[in-house]
Each structure stands twice: as structure tokens, then as C-alpha cells.
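Forum: Protein Structure Q&A
Topic: Joint prediction for protein chains with partners

I've read a bunch of threads here and the consensus seems to be that you should model interacting components together rather than docking separate models afterwards. I'd like to see that in practice. Below is the full input, 330 residues plus whatever partners are listed. Could one of the regulars post the assembled result?
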Amino acid sequence: MSTAPPTPATQSSDGARSLANRLRKNLRHLTRWVQREGIHCYRLYDADIPEYALAVDVYECDVRRVHVQEYEAPKTIDPDKARARLQEALPVIAEVLEIPREQLYLKVRRPQKGSAQYEKLGAQGNFYEVSEGGNRFLVNFEDYLDTGLFLDHRITRSLLASLAAGKDFLNLFAYTGSATVYAAAGDATTTTTVDMSNTYLEWAGRNMALNGFTGKPHRFIQANCIEWLQQAGGSQRYGLIFLDPPSFSTSKRMDGTFDVQRDHVALIASTVRLLQPDGVLIFSNNLRRFKMDRGAFPDLIIEDISRATLPKDYERNPKIHNCWKITREP
Ligand SMILES: C[S@@+](CC[C@H](N)C(=O)[O-])C[C@H]1O[C@@H](n2cnc3c(N)ncnc32)[C@H](O)[C@@H]1O
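Posted by a regular:
Agreed with the consensus. Here's the joint model:
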């Protein structure tokens, strides 16, 4: 039996070495910013080297945990080669980030349509607490494709907090309610959180409670937002609304489909009906080729804040989301 120590993963091949170098370079580049801004969860690597088509997100929880998403290789790439590269990449990531393999979680991201993205992968039920912008959130690395916190919207969430004081806040397609937590922390008078999924709505309630926001001012509504918007009448109006729909949505609970490009005009129009005259709507989505139909809204001021809401750790991928500040013409 050999007594030689195992070869460090970073020394195993040219490819592994360049991946390690890139991870180290990005760490160096981001560390000062992360420390200065008090950021605990950030994207370290996003397919910077095309052969290693991964997104690597670092979460400083109880210990450092790392969420790795493998982008599905294009058909032109030999699947055996892609698998071999991934097998090579994982120990490199663990080594550079100085974590044991159990703190690294791997998911494969396929282009998804409909609700598959939000379905359950497992049932480990392990939730960890992370902090962002002075608020606390529960994340889960095993049971779903996403962790519960979309890191690309960090700045969008703090924008919502800065606009929320004294407002009634409405969060549509709310997912785990992270934007609601920020709005409540920014002194919103009331919050209303709407999502179709009971699982995510419950998670939103736990995130709110973790930050001390419970009781009557905070409503949680399980509904299809498209139908809810059509029925939401009465006199209730909101001073601040966050509308962050998926690019596509179909569900057993829904008739028909939702396609953000096709349906954004109707969606924005029915949301604006619920705005107070001086209210602000922040609309965003993740469709890379999204085109806002400005001509459809002659009475609205539509400001593209995609660039202003792009965090430093996503600068290499500026199309990660598009984001718009929408108000009425005075
Ligand atoms: C925030 S959206 C999409 C987030 C991000 N913009 C993206 O595209 O990945 C995800 C949430 O929308 C919810 N959702 C999808 N379709 C819905 C619908 N028609 N009505 C209400 N919630 C819906 C899902 O349950 C999930 O919590």
C-alpha cells in the first residue's frame, strides 16, 4: 500500500488547474467587496471557463456551504466528457473553498418550462440560516433546484426596503418571501404575500417570523396570481408592489399557461390597477431576451433599472434578470 499523500485535486490535470486558478482569482476579486458590504451569500463563478459550465454560489451559514449548479451541456459536447469534467471539478471547488465534500451540493440545471423548476427534488428538510442585508433567511440546498434565495436580486430587495416605509406592500409570485422580509424591515405598514405554492408560502411565513414579522399586518395568500389579480377589486390599493413572475408557468392548479413575453402587458396592466396613484411597481423577470412593450403603456413611466440592480458578483452575466421601475405619469 502506498503511503504517499493523495495528490491535491488541483494538480490532477491542466483543466483542473485552470479551474482552481480561476476560482482563486474570483475569490481574491470578490473578498474585499464581500467583507465591505457584509455579504454572506454570493456567486463566485459562472461558467467563466466554458468547459466547466457551472455556477458556484457560496453561502456562509453555520459553516460555509457551496451550491453548485451544472448547466446542461449542449448536444455538441460528449456527455461522458462532461461527466468526467464535473467529477474533476467538484474536488477542486471543495479544495479551493476549503470545505469537506459534504458541504458541497450539486444540481443539474436544464432549461425548464412550466412548474418543474419549483418541484421537490428530495425531502431532507435541512434548512440553514443565512443573513443578507441585516435580515435572516432559511435556505435549503437539497430538496429543490433553487435554495430559497435568488442572489441576483440582492440589490432589488434593498431597493424595495428603501421604498417601503409607510407603504402597503404587495409581493406577487413571492416564492419564499425574501422581498416581503425586506419590505417589512423597511417599515412597510402592511405586507401581502401571494404565491401559488403552499410550500413556498409556508417558507415565506417562516422567513417573516424569523425576522419578528408576524400577526395581522402580514397576510399570506395562496393563489394563482393571474387569477387573483383579475379578482382583486375592492378598495385595497398598494403603495409598493414587487412583481417577479417566472418566465413560463403552467401548473395543475392553472388553466392555460403564462408566458412573460406574451403576457407581460396584461399582467402589468392588471397589477397597476392595484397601485395607489403615487405608488411604485418594481417588475422583473429572468427571460434573457425579454422586450418590454413600452408602447402599450402611454400613461406609465417605465424606467429600466436592470443595470442598477445588477450586483457585482453577476457582472459577467448581465442578462441574469431584467428589472423595471414603473410609476404613473403625474
Ligand atoms: C418568483 S417566481 C420566479 C422567480 C424568478 N423570477 C425565476 O424566474 O426563477 C417563482 C415563484 O412563482 C410561483 N408561481 C409560478 N406561477 C405562479 C402563478 N401563476 N401564481 C402564483 N405563483 C406562481 C412559484 O410557486 C414560485 O414560488
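Residues 215 and 232 are 22 Å apart (CA to CA).
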